[in-house]
Amino acid sequence: MSDRAPVTRSLAAFISGFTPAALPDEVMAYTRKLAKDGIGVLCAATHRSVTAAQGIGDFAEEVAGQGPCTLIGRGRKVDPVTAALANGTLGYAADFEPHHPEAILHPIAVMLPTAIALSEAQNRTGAEALAAIALGCEVTYRVSMAMNPRALYDRGFHPSAIVGSFGSAAASAYLLGLDAEQTVRALGLAGLQTSGLLAWQDDPREDARPFQMGLAARNGVMSAMLAKRGFGAPDRIFDGGHVVLDAYTAVASPAPLIADLGVAWDGVMELAIKPYASVSFLHPALDALVALLEEHALTPGQIAKIGLRFADSGAHCVDDNPLKGHSAQYILPVRAALGRLSFLDLFVDRRESDPEVARLAASAEVIRDHGAFNDAFPEFYMGEIILTLADGRTLSATSKVARGYPEQPLSEADLAQKFDDVTATVCSPVRRAALAEAAEGLYHAPDVSALAAVLAQAPDA
């Protein structure tokens, strides 16, 4: 490789030389926690109500070649590329997986299916699969920060999909044992395939939204597999020529790609674990809403109107979005009226069956802020809830950092309850216990076969 590609080469050298031992203990420990959470959500996405999972699974069964990789919920083995596509779509379907607030990312949804597929194909250990997840998350984060996630959103691009291809390529390169030159080409091929538009917001079925995570996982796996076979590719994707960073924003900088590489692991350690099944932009607001409901012992009938003050830069994603999981006018009323929020609420419209949800949804509005809330976005998804009560009073509360963020982590009891709740929708008690055991024991497992075997089973709840 010539010196004309110092950033690309530096990143590739780091990836090709990566081992699990390179991860600080605290990074591996948190990766294990993130992976278990993601595994529960991935399994829950096989629920029959999740149309994206049903559609992509049917497609995969029809077109896939035979292979060593599990098709989750289908009891079938397929090729790595198809497994990454189908299982990656499941990874984001329930909208309940860990996310990175600042970089506006859902990397676990992409890296977990990538790591499972290629760990099966390459007979990798559980620890190596976990290390691949951490590596992929970190590379995804660095590319997002280099492109500038807010600028991506402003142009209608979906950061998780655009940069997820690079993270998946990095994880795949490690699991396939690519050398530095092959990894340069894997990154170049991933760059050629980058895609992801916020146009999925116009799909009320919510199939297109998770499909983009499936594409990112597929792109990364395919890029690394082709690079290993000697397939040609751009060799300076982050440095010169038609630089991928400049293709998506006008404010990109390559510096975050290699700054403190191997020392800082913010792409892992700053991931938040979701306490709510919805777009993460609404999580601080949901915390504020729950606080008001509990502090004042409010019943749904006491609430006349729900208002949300939110950053103008991100409001387009939550203001009357046709996707239920991304609509403040749906998510906030469901939580206020029903006293809980399930991922199944994203696929079964509660406005059609519950009069209080329908009434509150009709009353709800988003107030677009151009001041402090907007200035804080996307590092903080500040939300102010304003409740107008039937008796004329007005109550308000603001939250800047949601539960589940590293600054306010969920307790071990909360995490265990979330895992049980989501998996109970598709798993019998026996299978749920087996899945928890496989997820918790992944680090010490000689391979990923035990985990894959439980995930392969069809819903039995």
From TrEMBL:
Residues 10-250 form the MmgE/PrpD N-terminal domain. One of its GO terms (molecular function) is lyase activity. Residues 276-437 form the MmgE/PrpD C-terminal domain. Transmembrane segments: none annotated. SUPFAM superfamilies: 2-methylcitrate dehydratase PrpD (SSF103378). It comes from the Bacteria. InterPro entries: MmgE/PrpD_sf, MmgE/PrpD_sf_1, MmgE/PrpD_sf_2, MmgE_PrpD, MmgE_PrpD_C, MmgE_PrpD_N. It holds the Pfam family MmgE_PrpD_C. Belongs to the PrpD family. PANTHER family: 2-METHYLCITRATE DEHYDRATASE (PTHR16943:SF8), 2-METHYLCITRATE DEHYDRATASE-RELATED (PTHR16943). This is 2-methylcitrate dehydratase PrpD. It comes from Pseudooceanicola pacificus.
